[in-house]
Amino acid sequence: MTHRPAPTDIAIHPLIAGRWSPRAYADRPVAHAQVVALLEAARWAPSAYNAQPWRFVVFEKSRDADAFARAFSFLVPFNQTWNANAQVLIVVLADTLNAKGEPVPNASYDAGAAAMAILLQAHAQDLAAHAMSGFDANGFEKTFAIPERLTALSVISVAHHGDARALPSALAERELAPRARLSLEDIVQFGGWKQTA
Asked: Where is the Nitroreductase domain (predicted)?
């Protein structure tokens, strides 16, 4: 199931409403040109002072299976189970220092915006993409000699959509369950923050 628009209370753009985090992946390669398009979308994300403090390490199973397998090994076991058919892993990094070597306090925030651009572009290309925090960031940084100024924040796996029924039953249920979010009343206050019970 690739079309699962969010049941929004107010109409929003279909690209945003349609984006979700699938786990059912098909075991077939993603074209390199599609991967490059994901990264081009990230390149145009907004950032404070246009500092662009995002960096990415990309692993494509069809182009370098050994490097892909090494990167895959840093996913936590649960994420490894449903990512068996993942074709691309994109590690999202934040550059914590600017050109003068000064700290960039908003680096993670801006890198998150770039990651969201990847997710939206993947959805626009009818690809399945899922961002994960469940990985060994320290092990990854050491193994792949990531400079100290860069911090690994998340991994985005990418593939073509697969059949949810091929997932373990508990994950298949989650894959097909209705989408839900907190209400606007739960997350938004206008004119200042008022204490609630």
From this structure: 16-153
